[in-house]
Amino acid sequence: MASRGESGRTDPTVVRDVGVVIVAGGSGSRTGSTELKQFRWVSGKPALLHSVQAFMARTDVAVVVVVLPKAYAADPPPWLFQCDVDRLLVSVGGRERHESVVNGLEDLPEEVTVAVVHDAARPLVTDATIDRVIAEARKGHGAVAALPVVDTLKEVDEHGRIVRTVDRTHLWRAQTPQAFPRVMLEEAHVAARRDSIGATDDAALCERLGFPVVVVRGSERGMKITEEADFARADALSLLVE
Fold it and tell me: Phi-psi region for residue 37, left (φ > 0), alpha (ψ -120 to 50) or beta?
């Protein structure tokens, strides 16, 4: 685990080589609200602020790049600057998620060797989960926070008729954060752009090139806010201590 300085002060014994890209460029239309879901409050503060502060609490993080929709990137919400502004950058989101990630990666300073990608729609990320993905990325491969599938899975046809029961033994539900050696992730995105490949998961872009990627234990607190009911669920999960 990275050591932390009092009030966020730098610990000179820790190398700041981690760059974080928080993807917050989505519209959140499935929540049915006109307000961006990453700006709505969860457990006492805006959802996006939870993630930014979680990563900035780490002294090994050199910079956090928040990728916002173009309309908000030029004039971010003032509460965002409750963070360490010296380690905060705001980038403009692309039309698709992978484009937003690339924009964020381009803003990382040269000293960053470990790149972490996190979805702002997962506001309750735990420090233990962050530790695990970064530790694996430092070993030279990608890492994805995930949880094993525990429900029985059914494959169905277009009429809803069950075709087969899927073996769940080796199946995991991918979450974020995901961490990678920076050069690996950048190469994966360059290749994806060259081949006109899009993805909602950065690990998938690395996998298609044969780069090693492992799963690490995530957390139920790492849930993604997608629909309106998820806000109440996130509020409840925030009260749980892991």
Answer: alpha
Length of the chain: 242
Which residue carries 């990275």 as its tokens? Answer: 2
Closest CA to 11 of 51, 60, 67: 60
User: What is the predicted pLDDT for the residue at 13?
Assistant: 72
Q: 1 lies in a domain?
A: no
Which range of residues forms the domain containing residue 166?
A: 14-237
**Percentages (nearest 5) of helix, strand, coil residues in the chain:** 35, 25, 40
Count of domains forming the chain: 1
pTM: 0.90
Residues of the chain with pLDDT under 70: 1-12, 26-34, 241-242
The answer to whether position 187 is within a domain reads yes
**DSSP for 212-223?**
-EEEEE--GGG-
Which DSSP symbol is given to 94? -
Q: 67-123, pLDDT tens digit by residue?
A: 999 999 999 999 999 899 999 999 999 999 999 999 999 999 999 999 999 999 999
Q: How far apart are CA 3 and CA 20, in angstroms?
A: 17
103 part of a folded domain: yes
Q: What is the CATH number of the domain that holds 156?
A: 3.90.550.10
Q: DSSP letters of 193-238? A: HHTT---S-HHHHHHTTT--EEEEE--GGG----STHHHHHHHHHT
3 in a domain, yes or no? no
Q: How far apart are CA 189 and CA 94, in angstroms?
A: 14
User: In sequence order, which ranges of 33-126 are alpha helices (DSSP H)?
Assistant: 47-56, 70-73, 97-106
